[in-house]
């Protein structure tokens, strides 16, 4: 039962944080709908089984069995993930994400760092995490550039100024 309630608390806290950030950026519908698929059985039950509390259970599931059914379900239903925007041709092609989904991805990454890092969170946390995994992302170059711009701005200026920057330059 501890993993059940721990996972429920973690994903709900994360969703609330993303929703608040999306609202602050002017993305009201996306904030409300963000990550609702995490409450579906395929995502929720694997999340409970692999729950650790300090990182995504998806990563643990991939370590244990080599893949994550919950992740495959999640990325195919949530447009704020760059994996949603891959065209499965030969070769696989990364499609440029609409700006509103890049902003939601920014909010998602910030909230994930806040949720899992707790008191250790800093304004450069999401940028460091992104840069650590950047080479493994098959993301469109313009999507990469915008996400990195927003995460760098956050690192340099803090969250309040970054949200003001997003509203001024990308949510007119």
TrEMBL record:
Q: Which domain of life is it from?
A: Bacteria
Please give the InterPro entries that the UniProt record associates with this protein. DUF5662
> In its UniProt entry, what is this protein called?
DUF5662 family protein
Q: Which organism is it from?
A: Massilicoli timonensis
